[in-house]
Amino acid sequence: VQLQASGGGLVQAGGSLRLSCVASGSIFDINAMGWSRQAPGKEREFVSAIRWRPGGTIYYADSVKGRFTISRDNAKNTVYLQMNGLKPEDTGVYYCAGGRPITSTIGTGGGYSNWGQGTLVTVSS
Predict the structure, then answer these.
(1) Using CA atoms, how far apart are residues 52 and 76, in angstroms rounded to an integer?
(2) How many angstroms separate the CA atoms of 91 and 70, rounded?
(3) Which terminus of the chain faces fewer neighbouring Cβ atoms within 10 Å, N or C?
(4) Phi and psi (nearest 5°) for 86?
């Protein structure tokens, strides 16, 4: 599975961005996709995930709940991360992930065997 992420950029605090991740190849190898981020000097944080099937599990890290919304378009094999109310601490490289995590690991990064290239999000204060 190949994952292509896009949508990063520079935005002022309080602004919005929408990240996209398109999956191609053996997409039946995955049943969930998500996003993690790497901020300078910090550990990678898994911020959101969604199952492919409608009504499946959706995960948000506490740090983004109420501000970020993950969604999918199965017809386009694409997952989106709508980020509103951005804060400087949201700055980092955002990576798209795909895999077959079990329920207990859908929000930890475990079980994701496919990763895309990162897209940089910079939030200025």
Answers:
(1) 12
(2) 18
(3) C
(4) -65, 145
Number of neighbouring beta carbons within 10 Å of residue 97: 24
Q: Which amino acid is at 22?
A: V
Give the side-chain half-sphere CA count within 13 A for 111.
18
* Identity of the residue numbered 107: G
3-state secondary structure of 49: strand
pLDDT tens-digit map of 101-118: 998 999 988 899 999 999
pLDDT digits (tens, 9 = 90+) for 43-52: 999 999 999 9
Q: Are 31 and 88 in contact (CB under 8 A)?
A: no
Q: How many residues appear in the chain?
A: 125
Place of tokens 């079990």: 102
What are the Cα distances from residue 75, in Å, to 52, 57, 89, 112? Answer: 11, 19, 33, 21
Distances, alpha carbon 8 to alpha carbons 62, 83, 91, in Å: 21, 10, 10
Q: Give me 3's structure tokens.
A: 């994952």
